[in-house]
Each structure stands twice: as C-alpha cells, then as structure tokens.
Specification:
The structure holds 2 protein chains of 2 kinds.
Chain A: E1 8-19, E2 26-37, E3 41-45, H1 52-59, E4 67-72, E5 75-76, H2 82-91, E6 93-96, H3 108-119, H4 124-137, H5 153-165, E7 171-175, H6 183-198, E8 202-206, E9 218-223, E10 226-232, H7 255-264, H8 277-296, H9 299-307
Parallel strand pairs in A: 3-8, 3-9, 6-7, 7-8
Antiparallel strand pairs in A: 1-2, 1-4, 4-5, 9-10
Helix pairs in contact in A: 3-4, 3-5, 4-5, 5-6, 7-8
Chain B: H1 3-19, H2 21-58, E1 63-68, H3 75-80, H4 94-101, E2 106-115, E3 119-120, E4 131-134, H5 137-141, E5 146-149, E6 160-163, H6 165-172, E7 181-184, E8 187-195, E9 213-216, H7 217-223, E10 230-237, H8 243-257, E11 264-268, H9 274-312, H10 314-322, H11 327-361, H12 372-398, H13 402-407
Parallel strand pairs in B: 4-9, 6-8
Antiparallel strand pairs in B: 1-10, 1-11, 2-4, 2-10, 3-7, 5-8, 6-9, 7-8
The chains are: A alpha/beta, B alpha+beta.
C-alpha cells in the first residue's frame, strides 16, 4: 500500500464547470487543481454551493462538459468515448449517495447486482452469487430479498455501499453518505468506509460534518468553486461523540423528530414491518402528531429546513 | 448487447410491467384488439378466398371454364365487372358449344345461361331467383348430386325442370317437390328432380344452385325469344394431363369461330378461382387497412404508457447510468419493455382473433383458414408497432442527463 501511495489516480488541472450563459453565467468549479493518489481517503468540505457535489460528479464521470484537464489513471477523460466512460463508471468507480439511490422496485440483492449487469459476461446466477457475497460482508445476507423501503436508513446505506463495491472499483465516491443517517448508523457507515480505505481503496467523500474528517487522510475545503485549503491529517481514532446526533436534520429541540430518531436508532435487526403492535400504535400516533406540526409550518420555515 | 444483458432486460421488463398491472393490461388490450381484428379478417378472408379453389380441387382438376369477354390480368376489372352481366350480350354462342364438343379429349361440355323471370307455384320465388339454362352434362361436370328424381334428360319432355332444395322449400313449402308444376315466365314446367344441398353460395358458376331452378336449353330459347345468353361454358377434359391441350384447342377453335376476335377467356384449374379469390382479397385488404387503424391507436397507447414509465423512472435511469449503463443499454431496456407489451398483445390478439373467426364462421358458409402467413403478420405487426411506438420513449429515457435524473424525485 505504501508503494502505491504516490501513484496519482486523479489529476485535475484548471478544471472549470460553468452553469448558465451571459449575465447568469457562474462557475461552480473555478480552476480546480487537484491530484489524488491511490489509497487516499479524501474528504471534501465546504458550505452549500461551494461546488463539492459538482466536483464529485465530474470525478465520477457523470458530468463531462467541463473545461480544463481531467486525467483518470493517466488517461485524459476528454478523449474517451461515452461507451468507455460508462465502462469506467461500471468497473472503476463506485458511487455512494446521500439519498442512497436504490431502485425501489428491485430487491436488495438485485440492487447490489445492478453494476454487474452492465459489466457484462456474467449470468444471472453468478451475479446474484456475487451480490450475495458482497451483502454478507456487510452483514445483510438476511435482508437479500427485502425491498429497500423495508430497511432502516443505515441498512439502506450499507446496501448502497455494497452496490458501489460489487465491481471491486478502485475509487469510491461518496456524496454525504451519512447525511440522512443518525449518529449510530453514521458510525457504522464510516467504519465500513475506513475499513475499505484500509484495504487500499481510494475514497473521496463529500461531507458537511467536520467530525467525519477524523476518518480521512486528507481534508479539502472548497469555497466558491475553488479549493480553499488542502491538508493532510494523521489517521487516528475518531474523536466523535456518538451520544450527540450527527445527522443535520435531527434537532434535539423537536420532541417529535427526536423521538422518531430514537425509534430509527433501534437495533437494525428490527425492521419497521415487524414492529410490536404497541410500537406500531406509538409510531402511528407520532405520525399523526408530526403531520399536525407539519401543517403549522409556514412555507418559509419549510424552505429553511430544506436548505439545512 | 450481450446475451446476459438481454435476459436482464427481459426480466426487468417483466418486473416493471408487473408492478403496474392494470396499466399494463389496458395497454396490452389495445394492441390485442387491433391484432385480433386483423387476424379475424385475414383468416376469414383467406378462408373465403379458398372456397372456390377448394371446389375446383374437389372436381378433379380437369375442368376448364370459358367466359365471355377478353380476359386480362388486371385484377381491378376482375372485381369490378358485374358477375352476372345479364344485360350485356354475351360473345359466346351455341355454335361455340357445338365446336368445343367436337374437340378431341373433351369429355363433357355444359353451357350456362342465367335468365331472370317470375317463378311461381304455391308461392312466388323471390325476385332475382336465377333460372339456370344448361344441358344434362352439367350434372357430370359439376358433380351435382340429386336428392330425389333425376337431372335434366334430353330424352324426356322439354318442359321439365330441376330445382334447388332451398328454392323448393320457398316455392312449394317442401323439399318433396317431385312431380309438382312450376310456372316460369308463365310457362308450366314439371319438377323432375330436386338437387342435394351443396351449401356453396360462392362458386365458380356464380350462381347458388341451392336457390336456383335449372331448365333445358331448347325450351329456354323459346322463353328468351331464341336468344341464348351463354354466360359460361364448363368443359371437362378426359384427363388432367390433356387439359392444357384442350385449353389451347378451345382457344384456337373459338378464335376461328369469332373470326379472329379474342372476345372470350378460357380459364383452367386455379385460374378459375382467381376472380373470386381476388375479390375477397381486395375486400380483405381494405378491411385490414381499417382494422390497422385500431392497431395504431393501440400503438399510441403503448407510447403513452412508455412515456409515463420513463417519467416515473427518471431517477432509476440516473442510477443505472451512474452504475455503468450506457445510453444504448437504457434504449434497449425501454424498447424491450414496449416490445413485451406489444408482443403480449400480439399473442393474445392472435388467439382471440381465431376465437372470433371461428365464432363468426358458424354463421358463414366457410371456415377461417390457418396459415403461417397470418401468424407471421400478426406477430410481425406487433413487433413493428412495439418498435415504432417504443423507440421514442426509449430514446427520450436514454437521453436523460444522469445528474438531472438523480436529482429527480418522483
């Protein structure tokens, strides 16, 4: 691993991404120079609109209409055909999204096997076997034939990570993977990611949570489409206080949501569909109360919450 | 596209269509109705078109038919010229019949003239009931079966007639009409025979013998002021092998008889059924074209549903692209889904079409025909419809920008 540390996987030179034209023109990425070596765990931080997600989309070859140079494992991306880009996405890059992005009508195992379908050359049975093996490493083998909505947030994100890893990609791009999770689930996900990092994968993670940078080997801060700071950090034990919720949307002041959060934080082996009748009643009552509160919210307040 | 990817697309289409059952069924129903109507029309039309061919085949294949007027290959003429031509003076004469009779290898000759006139006994026959004027040979040429009595016989009285079973029922109130008197154009005729029901309203003689009365030639001249309007001459050769020779001999003889004018047509074996078949095929083509409109409507239904599917699954498209799907993979995924819809409709419609055709054939004098062409047409058009109406939604799906698609919330 030490030898591969200095091999650049991603090289960006004066990368620019422009949105809009004329007076409305603005740069989401404004001259980004960045080199990421193999085996690094990079966290990208910065306020909303600083270009973190745009950068991740560009790195993940989802967005190719950019100015400047982008070399992925020594190959200039601009010279690659669309088919080649799709192949690279399928074989070399694994995506983990904040909103999990599992296909709701497919079972857990089918979701995990999805990248293998596009890799080609594997029968349905082989794909399922491989997906099952991958799920087993995330202790989700009992949930293989569940549908995504039957899983807890933490489980869903672990499925999403399993999907990202099923093709053995060298680069994992994670866009706020813990953004929708409570502290306990976040901890599990971060442990999984750092385990992957220890196994030699390159991980690039966008986050809002400064506490998560403790897992990273390098922290990049972005501001207005530019890299504001780029620091290497020593990997140590995470100094996160897990008693405090890390998820942005969970606020202690709201008694309803905190109670819901508490319910969500119940052990993962207890899916929502198998709640005891008493809990079910409690949950229904909570749902009703929550709806009443939601009705009282003004549009301005809702918009504010959305942007948080 | 690899075999595995194809099977994955098929499985995916099945899952996706199952997840919205009622919508899928309604869309399939649209295609099903279109394909069913086309199958029904084609199978019945082809069945009807084969009626005369089958009759000719049953008669042994050594039959030739001479019709007035120059023949041509223009099928529009075949189907537009009125078949009875009762108001046109025929170019065929009794002299032609005599000349043909003398030709070698000719086994039997029977001219057919059709008169119109009042036919009355206890009841009056419906207006337009044909009076067939012919010779006794018609029975052997057309293989006519007698239910009771006998066919025309030159050795007995001229004022005799043979009646079809349906007409006997209409005029005498019973099929047992032997010996009864019937008045044709005011002249009295004795019924000497009742034909067995042929149940062939469509035939190469262009007359429904079940519903006709047959009289001899000599007496008919008296009825029509000595003018024999011969509409057709049926000729039977002594063997199938000699038929081509007989046809060319007839052509030579009649051309000579008509002073070099080729104002007649000699049709042999399958050519005899051509005008009737073509008439049916023309009708079938037009009705199929009309039925195809319903298929177009079904196709629009497919396009509509596929566009809804694409819109509903925008996020899924984004996810698939993010995990490595190429544009063509997405196109195939949605195209296979629309093909699954149209082909299911095609299969079900084909089955339903035959069901309807058989149901309809209970009221018709023929059965729908089973040919591989109809199956190919039914499934072929479902594939074409599925492709034409599925390609636009599929391309639209594939063109989704992955980033935009991932942001989409359904």
């Amino acid at each position: 691993m030490e030898n591969s540390q200095n091999t650049p996987v991603i090289v960006l030179r004066n990368l620019k991404k422009r949105f809009g034209i004329g007076d409305a023109e603005q740069y989401a990425l404004d001259g980004v120079d960045l080199t990421i070596n193999k085996g690094e765990f990079v966290t990208i931080m910065g306020p909303s609109g600083s270009g973190k997600t745009t950068l991740l989309n560009v790195l993940g070859l989802l967005d190719t209409s950019v100015e400047g140079d982008y070399e992925l494992e020594g190959q200039p991306v601009s010279s690659l055909s669309k088919r080649r880009l799709a192949r690279i996405r399928s074989q070399q890059i694994g995506f983990v999204f904040q909103s999990f992005n599992l296909i709701s009508r497919l079972t857990v195992i089918e979701n995990v096997a999805l990248p293998l379908t596009y890799k080609g050359g594997m029968s349905h049975l082989k794909r399922m076997k491989k997906a099952s093996e991958m799920l087993a490493t995330f202790h989700l083998n009992e949930r293989e034939y569940y549908l995504p909505y039957q899983l807890s947030g933490g489980q869903t994100q672990r499925v999403a990570i399993a999907r990202a890893l099923v093709n053995n990609p060298s680069i994992i791009l994670a866009d706020e993977p813990t953004g929708n999770l409570d502290s306990r689930a976040s901890h599990i996900i971060m442990e999984e990611l750092s385990d992957l990092h220890r196994r030699g994968n390159t991980i690039i993670m966008v986050t809002h949570n400064p506490d998560l940078t403790t897992y990273a080997s390098r922290v990049i801060t972005m501001l207005d489409g530019k890299i504001a700071s780029d620091t290497d950090v020593l990997i140590g034990k995470p100094s996160v206080d897990f008693k405090r919720p890390m998820g942005q949307k969970v606020t202690v002041s709201d008694p309803v949501t905190s109670k819901l959060a508490k319910l969500n934080a119940e052990p993962d082996t207890k899916p929502m569909t198998k709640l005891a009748p008493a809990n079910r009643r409690q949950l229904k009552a909570l749902g009703r109360k929550r709806q009443q509160i939601a009705k009282k919210r003004t549009p301005a307040r809702r918009a504010e919450e959305y942007h948080q | 596209m690899s075999r595995f990817l194809l099977s994955s697309h098929v499985q995916n289409a099945r899952q996706s269509l199952r997840s919205s059952r009622s919508r899928t069924l309604l869309t399939i129903l649209g295609i099903m109705i279109g394909v069913a109507s086309i199958t029904t029309i084609l199978s019945l039309g082809s069945g009807a078109g084969q009626i005369v061919t089958k009759q000719i085949d049953a008669l042994g294949g050594n039959l030739a038919v001479i019709r007035p007027g120059a023949g041509n290959n223009n099928f529009l003429n075949d189907i537009t010229i009125p078949q009875h031509q009762g108001f046109v003076t025929s170019t065929l004469t009794s002299g032609d019949v005599e000349a043909i009779t003398k030709l070698p290898h000719v086994k039997a000759v029977a001219p057919i003239s059709i008169l119109n006139g009042n036919i009355a006994a206890e009841h009056t026959a419906p207006v337009g009931t044909p009076i067939v004027v012919t010779t006794p040979e018609l029975a052997s040429i057309d293989n006519l079966k007698i239910d009771s009595g006998e066919f025309l016989d030159s050795s007995i009285s001229k004022e005799t007639a043979v009646v079809g079973p349906s007409l006997a029922r209409a005029v005498f109130g019973t099929i047992d009409a032997l010996g009864q008197t019937v008045y044709i154009r005011g002249e009295a005729f004795t019924i000497i025979g009742v034909l067995k029901s042929t149940n062939q309203p469509i035939n190469y003689n262009n007359v429904d013998l079940d519903n006709a009365i047959i009289i001899g030639q000599s007496v008919a001249y008296a009825l029509s002021d000595g003018l024999a309007q011969i509409q057709q001459i049926n000729v039977r050769s002594d063997s199938v092998a000699n038929l081509p020779g007989v046809v060319s001999a007839i052509n030579r003889t009649l051309t000579h008889q008509h002073l070099g004018d080729k104002d007649f047509t000699v049709l042999a074996s399958n050519d005899i059924s051509r005008p009737t078949s073509q008439l049916f095929y023309a009708v079938v083509s037009v009705t199929t074209a009309i039925a195809a409109i319903s298929l177009l409507v079904g196709g629009v239904g497919i396009m509509n549903i596929m566009l809804v599917n694409v819109a509903e699954r925008t996020r899924e498209i984004g996810i698939r692209k993010a995990v490595g799907a190429h544009t063509t993979d997405i196109v195939w995924q949605f195209l296979i889904e629309s093909l699954a819809l149209s082909l299911s409709g095609g299969f079900l419609g084909y089955g339903l079409g035959y069901g309807l055709a058989f149901a309809a054939s209970t009221f018709l004098p023929f059965y729908p025909s089973f040919t591989w062409q109809i199956a190919v047409i039914a499934l072929g058009i479902s594939i074409v419809i599925g492709t034409i109406f599925g390609i636009y939604p599929a391309i639209r799906a594939a063109r989704h920008d992955p980033i935009e698609a991932l942001r989409y919330y359904s």
